[in-house]
Amino acid sequence: MRAMVIEAPNTPLISKDVPDPVAGNGETIIDVTACGVCHSDLHVVEGSIGRTPLILGHEVVGVDADLGPVLVYAPWGCRKAECAQCSAGLEMICADSHEAGVLDPGGYAPRMRIPHREYLLPLDGLDPVTTAPLACGGLTAFRAVRRAIGLSESSTARRKALVVGAGGLGQYAVQYLKLLADAHVTVVDTLPARQATALELGADAAGTFDDVAGEKFDSIIDFVGADATLAGSAKVVARGGVVVLVGMFGGTVPFGFGHLPSEASFTTSVWGSLDDLRELLDLARREKLVNVVETMPLAAANEAHQRLRDGTARGRIVLTMN
């Protein structure tokens, strides 16, 4: 089969013939329909996570011979009985995990090996192309929002939430915060076009950190994770509030009394559990989630990556096999 492969860090993906995947005991092979493009793909290309050579892609929809159209749960844990994280259903933080498209071959290919059929969730009528990004972008934002809601101890009557970064994940977070918490949602982003998109999706306000100076927020979700965004969040988080870090741009913030508001919590949120993904798909079937998605052919993967780097993608890009 012909796949898009990264041979070494910081090199373009190449289209090449690779062996068809073979299913072992308990495994299955799916025909890939489409695969979303994610910033984590760029981190693999840059060599900061994962390994090379590799077939990228972890936001995968495909067709299983028995289940029909499916969405793939991609953060595969070790599933050993002695693993506390896997036993608790938290495979995405397993120390010996082997995520699709990061360590194992992913969905930038016509066919893909799945180690356990449990990782295949039937679409049950959901559109494959717009559903593909839920496997990571949508799921990561979903878990981060629920952690932000659950951990905040601020006493504000109506929760004030701040979403940092209005790319694909931030766009999902705006909708989840409205649906799950009826929050007053402010978005900060340096790009006016993304601010406008956030307002279209239901945000109550959008601007930059300069525009929210002096305000306090119960829940902050940082989808960037740079020094500047963490410093900005530290200035506007309420006492007893929470900052949930999702973005992987290497930022840090000083910790200690006097550096942060009293009893404010700073934590990370990583991808999502299999149960989280099931609940998210149920939500997607009940509610009309707006998925800002554009499609490109698999052969255009390098162009899609560049658009993601440049910030010119309005929402999520999905690569199609046809």
Automatic annotation (TrEMBL):
Cofactor(s) required, per the database record? Zn(2+)
Any one Gene Ontology molecular-function term assigned to this protein's record:
metal ion binding
Using the record's annotation, list all stretches that form the Alcohol dehydrogenase-like N-terminal domain.
24-121
Gene Ontology CC annotations of this record: cytoplasm
One Pfam family matching this protein: ADH_N
UniProt EC number = 1.1.1.1
Note whether Metal-binding occurs among the keywords.
yes
Cross-referenced InterPro entries, in alphabetical order?
A: ADH-like_C, ADH-like_N, GroES-like_sf, NAD(P)-bd_dom_sf
- Any keyword Zinc? yes
| Record's keyword terms, sorted | Metal-binding, Oxidoreductase, Zinc
Enzyme class of the recorded protein, top EC level: oxidoreductase
Its UniProt entry gives the catalysed reaction(s) as: a primary alcohol + NAD(+) = an aldehyde + NADH + H(+); a secondary alcohol + NAD(+) = a ketone + NADH + H(+)
Domain (Alcohol dehydrogenase-like C-terminal) ranges: 168-284
* Residue runs in coiled coils: none
Q: Which family does it belong to?
A: Belongs to the zinc-containing alcohol dehydrogenase family.
Specify the protein name: alcohol dehydrogenase
This protein's species is Gordonia asplenii
According to the entry, what is the taxonomic lineage of the organism?
Bacteria, Bacillati, Actinomycetota, Actinomycetes, Mycobacteriales
